[in-house]
Write a structure and sequence with these properties.
90 residues; alpha+beta; 59% helix; flat
């Protein structure tokens, strides 16, 4: 039962990551559309960012950030497409 639950979480995370990449690709393709209300609706986004994070250990020090997430309609469409494909194939 535990491995099935872990597999579902892993599948969900991969679906989310692949959907975000597909949504980003769709957003880049939508930038080629002529200026219109549809283009502005599809590409209007909400951005959330946090960071930078610094980790300083004795042997290693690194800084990550700032990390930002951009969410728009095409990103949600990309996540939905990947979720549909994963659900139908797996």
């Amino acid at each position: 039962m535990e491995s099935n639950h872990r597999r579902n979480i892993t599948r969900g995370l991969w679906t989310l990551v692949c959907g975000l990449f597909l949504g980003g690709l769709l957003t880049l393709l939508a930038e080629m559309l002529p200026v219109s209300a549809a283009r502005s609706f599809l590409t209007a986004s909400v951005r959330a960012s946090f960071g930078p994070f610094s980790v300083d250990l004795v042997a290693v020090a690194f800084t990550v950030g700032p990390v930002s997430f951009v969410l728009n309609v095409l990103t949600l469409v990309g996540i939905a497409i990947v979720a549909f494909v994963v659900r139908s194939w797996l």
